Amino acid sequence: MRKTLFNRLLLSYMPIFIIMVTFTFFMFFQILSEQNRKEALNANKVLSLQAMRLIDTSLKAIDNMVMTETINNKELINFFNNEEKNNMFINISAVKKMQDMISSYPLIDSIYLVRFEDSFVLSNATSDKLSNYLDEPFIKKAMDPLASKSWSGVRSFEQFSVKGSKPVVSLVRGAPFITGEKGLIVINVATDSFQNSIADLYDPKTSFIGIRDAVGSELISGLNDKEQTRIFSNYVSSYTGWSYQSGLVKGKVFYVISSLYNIWFIIGIAMIVLGLAWMLYVTRRNSKPVEQIVDRIRGYRLPLSKEGGDEFSFIESALSNIIEQSNQYQQKHEEDRHLRMRYLFHQLIEGDTGLTHDEWMVETSSLQLPYAYDRQVVLVTEIDKYPDFCCQYSRRDQNLLKFALRSVIQELAPKYELVLWAEWTSASQLSAMVFVDSAEEAKDSVIRELFENVRLWSQDNLKFTVTIGIGEQVAELSNAANSYKEALRALKYKIVLGENRLITSEHITNQGQVEVYSHLNAIRSIIQSFRLLEEEWKTKYDELFRTVKLGLLTKDEIMNLMNYLIYYLGREMAGMTKEFQEIWTTDGLPKLSKVIDESHSLEQMREESVTVLNSLFTGLQEAQDRRLHGATIRDMRKFIEEEYANPNMSLDYLSSTFNINGKYVSKLFKEETGQKFVDFLFDIRLQVAQRLLTETQTTIQDIAEQVGYTSAISFSRVFKKVVGSSPSEFREEAARRQHG
């Protein structure tokens, strides 16, 4: 089949292509020309600045030299002082110095000195009376006090009548330099030397430089043909007041060529308009075959076709509707399958579905699910330190790593002859349902081996670890929720048993809330020792974590215990001095709360919390040591702990023992410990009494006497008021807990 349509379209749009390329070509060279023009202008500006700076620098150097010599040079000073009339040696020395100055500064054409006292003029070439000197008019003008003593404009200078005059600029300075009362020194610089000094800066065939003095007279002339030149830059020297002008040779021609930019722009607009007109014509001609196709399609009544829109949209819609009628069911099935699978998985593990075996077989065929065998077991794989995982990786990388973890489980399962179904059930947990055809122990070991390899593979390749909770096998598909709950329960003990491992029901025991409550007294004892700044708190704290680990508490139970520790410690700090409270609120509480919230294991929680508590303990000790009576109160507290069984223990007893007023003792005790003397004494007696009631069979009367009470009745009354039960009831309850 010949490509007639292709050739027609190609030839139709070819003129547009040629027009646009031509326009682009001309615009490129026009822009290049404009750029060259701007660069030429910038070059001329730089040329003028360089010429001005070069000449100004040379003239300033001469000016500074004259100032220095008139102040420091002995020969010139002797000439102007004229102490010895007509001393030829002084004149010769002055002439020699002028010749040295001319040699040092090639720009200088001539120098002469004018002495006011005897109207004598001495130059580097001659000497004479002022009235006979050819430059007398300039000297007379310079002798005027109001006359400028800087560089003059261009003037004619004639030293010898036989040589004729030459254009120069002159610098006039008084002698001495400050007052100028004794004479003048005149430096003449020929204007030709300026031309020579800047000749290397530019090419006279392409550029020119003109210099005019302050009144507009030319020092250096530009081109003679003014009609062929155009000035592009003009700078005025702040030192001499001279103007520096530069431009291009035949600059007017260059300017005219550059001004054609507007003409080219108009031509370009015209070419664009012509191209648009041609494009409209060609598009209209080539759209006729498409319109014929649309008319033929409209002859068929398509059930899903829509009116409106352009011809191509109509054709696309018609073709899409035809294709949709043939594969609509398949597309819908593919779009919904994954969502239906996830929804069904969540229903199974949450116990919200009551599918029978036959119904499951229907779903298996529809959703391409695994075949349901006799038994099922659910495992939950949890990413360890998930907050750190989220901080370390971007959202895209997180999804990629999660996909890799799920893929490796699905790829390894066939190697162990296992059938499983895995879905992400939360941000950090990947749940897998394994289908087994028997309840043999061998299958349990194979499942554990599979997920042990998954754990090791994650550790080695994914750079993060996982902990896997394994539920019990269940016989019915509807009971998969029980296996899922068992797996989640196993993960709750990760904080005690450790991360990066497999946890089954064999590793955990059913611990009741009674054991959790049994740790509260230990926490209160730790806080009491901590508040009293006793070093024993560390031993008690380590013992608390040891018993918690042996008790195999869940993460929620451990968090509750640690939150109670923070609460009780905060309550104790609130009763202490303001300085102690500030240490707790600004340093202790925030750090301790952060450690407990971010800990991933029991050992990590213990180590980091001990570090925070040690720092807080040291701060409290230092604060107490700074107080005047801190040591005295510590001695009192130690004395009370040793003599708590003394029934005479009271404020008066302490006052007499430590030789301090009783009311003052009470005030100091409250400020230093945050606790009243009576409460402190009773806490010690109550702890001993509870230990004796729990561990011994000593009578209530004997216990009362051992803790400082002479009467068992008064002891029982105070004990029940604080504890909530009598001593005998407390002993019975403790016995039931031990044997229950």
UniProtKB/TrEMBL annotation:
Keyword Ubl conjugation: no
Descriptive protein name: Helix-turn-helix domain-containing protein
Source organism per UniProt: Paenibacillus alba
A Pfam family of this chain: GGDEF_2
Lineage start: Bacteria, Bacillati, Bacillota, Bacilli, Bacillales
Residues covered by the HTH araC/xylS-type domain: 634-733
Keywords attached to this entry: DNA-binding, Membrane, Transcription, Transcription regulation, Transmembrane, Transmembrane helix
Family annotation (InterPro entries): CdaR_GGDEF (IPR041522), Homeodomain-like_sf (IPR009057), HTH_AraC (IPR018060), HTH_AraC-typ_CS (IPR018062), Tscrpt_reg_AraC-type_HTH (IPR020449)
Segments crossing the lipid bilayer: 12-32, 260-281
